[in-house]
Amino acid sequence: MLSVLRRHRGYRRLFTAQVIALVGTGLATVALSLLAYDLAGSHAGSVLGTALAIKMVAYVGLAPLISALARQLPPRPLLVGADLVRAAVALVLPFVGAVWQVYALIFVLQAASATFTPAFQSLIPRLLPAEDDYTRALSLSRLAYDLEILFSPLLAAALLSRITYDWLFLGTVIGFLGSAALVLSAALPGPAAAPADGTPGFAARITRGTRVFLATPRLRALLALTLAIAAGGAMVMVNTIGYVRDHLGRATSDVPVALGAYGAGSIAAALLLPTLLRRASDHTLMLPAAFASAALLLALAALTRTGAGAWQWPVLLAIWCAFGVTESVIMTPTGRLIRRSASAADLNATFAAQFSLSHGCWLLTYPVAGWLGPAAGLAVVALVLGAVALGAALAAWRLWPAPDTSRLPHVHTTLAHGHPHLADAQPAGGGWRHTHEFVIDDLHDRWPLRPHHT
């Protein structure tokens, strides 16, 4: 997996920038929790919950808008500018004195992240055109996210034994500045080429990535798959403490052990996926993972109803580890599906749409996981989320055809004879028929499920 870092200097610098920024973000997460407690005391949980909601709203609402605004901008100033904004926010956070100021700064911070992440993701397939290299890069990226979840709290705990929490924000600032410096030093491609028929209007650019996403069967299925693993992930992220402390009556120190099992499962899957994806298709691996997420939730509901027992602790760890595996198996190959489904000009917009729509799935499952528990109990939460995951998995199975062929025959009925795109086409049915790698773009506005395509 590490061979891609040795062979590609530009990607190596971008990956290092991602890792440094992730460590800084992890330190900020810990520091923000302590800041919320200082400002709100016993209401710190509601402050953090609101901050998380603001994060999701920014991700869902702003990513397509920012992508449309930045469509023709060079990637380097876009990424560096986002890092500098994030560093500035982290620098100011220790000095706030009111909860509303935290909310305002978090919105700005997440708006910058909604700028950085899709632009960063869309660069990688352009830097690594070979499929194997890109798959390894996706697994490395997933591994970096998982290690950040495990490593950042440990680093924060070690630092807090010697410094106060407000200094952790300085670590965040250093992380974002380091990321910006590495992006500046990396050799990056220029702006993506404009669409074949010119640049569309601003309103069309806002919805362009979403239109590509929702018009492509495999991407519609990807959205359903994301909902399936969001159901399991929300159960883990929201209710781990409830299972460990309340249901099983174990010590607080066992909470990070359970979360560590979740992270370990995700890491193990990320390490194995480059090899597995050389032997099996994305379709073959991702669909069973969605059904597995549903089965795990339903098994968890049954387990919860049996009451607490010492034997349940290792079973819970195994289930949490399996949730991590299912999430990694679905999320890691996501970039491969997007690259296969979008033109170079639309990559940034399509990654922005995926960023927005996937966080919309989490925005749906987080409240179910958090609000239903106190009223109905953990067993009901697991049952409801299991039903959501099962419905999403069935939808993905219906939406994603097998085999998933990229080269598709189709007929153009509106392009005039002599159009450059029709150079290899043959007359057919009142139009021009040919076959090529098919994506939704200005010349292909819907998937050719019927014999004729306009």
From TrEMBL:
Subcellular localization, as worded in the UniProt entry: Cell membrane
CDD domains referenced in this protein's UniProt entry, alphabetically: MFS_MefA_like (cd06173)
InterPro entries: MFS, MFS_trans_sf
UniProt keyword annotation of Glycoprotein present: no
Annotated transmembrane regions: 14-37, 43-66, 167-188, 221-243, 255-273, 285-304, 310-330, 375-397
GO cellular component terms attached to this protein's record: plasma membrane
Protein name listed in UniProt: MFS transporter
